Every structure is written in structure tokens, then in C-alpha cells.
Amino acid sequence: MGGLRCPRCPRCPHVPVGRWLFRDGLLPEDIHVVGFARSPLTVELIRERTLPHLKASPEDSPLLERFFSRQRFVQGHYGDEAPFRRLEAALRELPGGAAAHRLFYLALRGALRHRHPAHPEHCMGQGWNRIIVEKPFGRDLASSDALSAHLSGLFHEEQIYRIDHYLGKEMVQNLMVLRFGNRIFGPIWNRDNVACVVVTFKEPFGTEGRGGYFDDFGIIRDVMQNHSCRCSAWWPWRKPASHQPDDVRDEKVKVLKCISPVVPEDVVLGQYVGNPEGPPEAHKGYLDDPTVPPGSTTATFAAAILHVANERWDGVPFVLRCGKALNERKAEVRLQFRDVPGDIFGHQCKRNELVMMTKKPGLFLSPEESELDLTYGNRYKDVKLPDAYERLILDVFCGNQMHFVRSDELREAWRIFTPLLHNIEARAERPIPYVFGRYYGPGPPEADELLKRAGFLYEGTYRWVNPHKL
């Protein structure tokens, strides 16, 4: 396995994920990892930086020794030919040489994207060659198309794995089994029964010194256009012909093609400010981050309404909400059903909401019978839930592209959000302030008003009781 990656933050998940897969015997026994970056690094330096974050026990020491002994490092600039010839020479020295399979992991910041490997033909092996590409996949439709065109000149689409780690999360992967493995949901999964769908991603922390990077993209590019939009596409789609990767991705693209571009009137933007009454990490607002440009108007929270113009979902708003510095960590999709017609209870009945057969936790698509209780910590007490990156990287080794972003899916997602992004940048208006961690709902109160306008009714009267603790 040859790697083209930028060793950024030592907490970057890829070294721990590689170790987990190696520990669990899910990687080929003769695997080797070759790092490539501009920085003057060594395997020993990478080891020192990552060890504190590997959560390894003393019993793991022999395995760690084996894992790091399989690593090499080559320094070089991405646009030069000579470093790639050195990389190829390093790869040929490994067992298998030119006949080995090669997996390239490209993790570059956005500014470097169009200076990324210009000479990878020197590194292609005689086995299969695959490349993992991390977001950002451009800044708008035009830049994304340019990046896709560049990649397609180097790799075939079946070799490209655009990774979105949210698509590897257990609950997201559970949605297909939930939707198409349970007869009860088919008849009610349409505009006649569903009032609205709300997709929420909440983070309880701010930019934590990474504001300079975040400020280049903002919450819409960083979360909404990719994580939120792709997760929402799992809900209104029709049953695919099979659960083969391209059949699944074909249906997601059909849904995205039915979504109109988002308009400013259907959007609320916010930016967090410090909370002097909160814990120390909440005292500073976004603009207090020294890496953020003074007076930045970049949003750290966004709520937007999407409209799916097809026969099954026309008129049902899909609300996406995501933000930083909120009151809790949560990733949630909520279906709210319409009121029961012919009410005989004097409006005392609250709207039904779907908080949802389940997929058995693990790395494979294995439906399992279960009560309607998806509290994983209770139902699967002794099961290790795989990390999202762990699952997705294993999928790359297996050649399974189901949970990776295809070029046409990427293009449709950017089509939906590019006009809005250009409008926001042209206006440069200051987002609505909200206090770090204080507000119970996601973002500023104006986001609640947007939800009401979309037809969502928040009752606030139901309190879930854990049946396992009664």
C-alpha cells in the first residue's frame, strides 16, 4: 500500500484506523505503508506524534512494533516529477515490488488540491491501483468539476474513493436496512404521511485553534453540502435494484437531481460568541480564535430547507441543521408524520415521530431481528462498534464503493448549494450571533422559526425512559 498523504494533526484518524485494522487481522499480512509529504518527517517522528493518541495498552506493544516496522517515508513536493520517481523506487523495494496492489490516500488541504500529484503514473503498480480522496472536493460546482476532471485524467472512476466518514457511521449504514427491510415503513414513506424530515448535526465544541482552516470553507461547505446533504438523500430514495454499490448510488443520484438549489430565504446562518458563564473552553467566541481573520462573516451554524420535487415527496420540506459550539454532540434524522385526520381527541394527540428491523453492529451488511430500540449501548453491550474510517478503509481494500461519493453525486450536491454560497459571499452579511453551548436547540432562535415555517411542530412533552434501567 503506497500512501500519498499530508501528516497534519497528530490526532488525524488514519494512523489509529490502520492500527485497528492491523490488530483485528483485517489487513493483508504483507501490507506496507509508505508516507509521502513535503515535510521533513521520519517514521520515528510520526510514531512519536501519534503514539499518545493511539489508545494502545501495554499488551499492544508487540503489535505496534510490527505495525510501525511496515512503514516508510518519502519526502517531496507534489508537483515535481523526481519525488514521485523516488516514491516508485521505494515501493518497488517492498515485497511484491511492481506486482503489488497499491492504495493511495490523498489528504491535502484545499489550497493544494490543484497542485496535487501531477506525476502519479510513475507510481502505478501492476496490481490494482486505488485512491482515497478526502474532502474538500472543491469549493463550488466549477472547482469541483475541475478537480473531478483532473482526477479522471489520472484514474478511472472505479479506482476513485471519495471518502465522507459520516457515510461510514453505524446509524447511517443502518438506514437502508431500516427502510427496505421492514414492511411497516413502505406504505407510510411518502408525502401523504410525512410532514417534514429534519437532519441535525450538532457539535459541542468550537474551532479549537483550527479556525483559519475552517474560515476558508464555513459550515455549509464543511458539513451541510456533504455530510448533511448525503445523509438526507438516504431517506426519500426508492428501493435500489440490489444492494450492489452502483445500484445504491444510482438511486441517491436520482434523489439529488430532484432537489432544487437552496434559496437564501430558506436559510438561517449563525456564528457563535463566547459564553462567560460556561466552562473555560466556551468563554471565547469564533472571532476570538487567533487563527480566524478579524471581522470574519463565516457561519459556524446553518439551517436550510431543501425541496424534493418528485411524485413521492413533493411538498415535504427536508430541513438540514448543523453547527459548532452547541449544547451537545448529536447526529439525528427525524421524520415527523402528519396529524391524524378526523381528530376525535380535541387536539390532545401529539404528532408521531420516527426515532427508529436494525443492522447488526459490525463491518458487514447483516440484518438482524430487534425490538424497536436502537440504543446501541444497551442492545449490543459487548459489541465493538467499528470506527467510520475503519469500516470505509476496509471497504476500499475490498473494492466496495457503496459508501463513497461518485462524481455525478458530488456534482449534484454542489449544484444544490453553489448559488447559495455565491450569494452569501457576495452579501458578506454578519451571521446571527448565538452563545456558545447555551441554547438548547441547534443554533439561534431564528432557526426555530425556520423549522416552524417548514411545518415542524416541536411538542417538547415526550421524555424517553431507558427500559433497561427500570
What does this structure look like?
- The protein has 13 helices and 14 strands.
- It has 470 residues and is an alpha/beta fold.
- The longest helix has 21 residues, at 407-427.
- The protein folds into two domains: 13-165, Rossmann fold, CATH 3.40.50; 167-344 and 404-454, Dihydrodipicolinate Reductase, domain 2, CATH 3.30.360.10.
- A seven-stranded mixed β-sheet has the order 11-10-6-9-8-7-14, sandwiched between helices. Strands 3-4-5 form a three-stranded parallel β-sheet, with helices on one face.
- It is 30% helix and 16% strand.
- Residues 176-456 form the Glucose-6-phosphate dehydrogenase C-terminal domain.
- It holds the Pfam family G6PD_C.
- Its EC number is 1.1.1.49.
- Keywords: Carbohydrate metabolism, Glucose metabolism, NADP, Oxidoreductase.
Percent of residues in beta strands: 15-25%
Radius of gyration: 23 Å
Q: Give me the strand/helix succession.
A: HEHHEHEEHEHEHHHEEEEEEEHHHEH
Low-confidence stretches are 1-11, 356-371
Q: What count of domains describes the coordinates?
A: 2
Task: Provide the residue-averaged pLDDT.
Answer: 83
CATH class of the largest domain: Alpha Beta
Outline type: globular
Task: Give the distance, in angstroms, between the N- and C-terminal Cα atoms.
Answer: 50 Å
CATH superfamily of the largest domain: Dihydrodipicolinate Reductase, domain 2
How many extended strands? 14
With helices defined by DSSP (H or I, 4 residues minimum), what is the helix count? 13
Helical residues, percent: 25-40%
